[in-house]
Design a protein that fits this description.
Blueprint (H helix, E strand, L loop, with lengths): L6 H30 L19 E9 L2 E12 L1 H35 L1
Antiparallel strand pairs: 1-2
């Protein structure tokens, strides 16, 4: 028996796979860059004059009363090791969400088979 996968569920699953694929590529590129740069040491994000270069940034939304608010803040000069930790954590989170979504589909198939 086939699972009934609606458009919204298909979109969600596609987006999970797409985020995983994109993030894994970014991680691979960053790790390759670090390996090639300064004998495996991550590059500094600022030079000796405190001028940023090769900067990694993270956008943080503002929240108010449990809701997203217009605007936000950007944090600049995130270190390469910190960025890699965030990206790897992101992949783990997305994979958990994907697994849960796929298990739900499996449960629906099993339930329909019993009916």
């Amino acid at each position: 028996m086939q699972a009934n996968i609606d458009k919204e569920r298909a979109r969600k699953i596609y987006n999970y796979y797409s985020q995983i694929e994109t993030t894994e590529k970014i991680i691979a590129d960053l790790e390759e860059f670090i390996r090639k740069y300064n004998e495996g040491e991550p590059p500094a994000v600022m030079d000796e004059n405190y001028s940023p270069y090769g900067s990694i940034e993270i956008s943080i939304p503002y929240f108010e009363h449990g809701q997203f608010k217009k605007g936000g803040a950007r944090v600049f000069n995130i270190s390469y090791p910190a960025a890699l930790k965030v990206l790897k954590s992101h992949i783990r989170t997305i994979k958990r969400l994907l697994k849960k979504e796929l298990e739900t589909i499996g449960d629906e198939i099993n339930t329909k088979e019993v009916e």
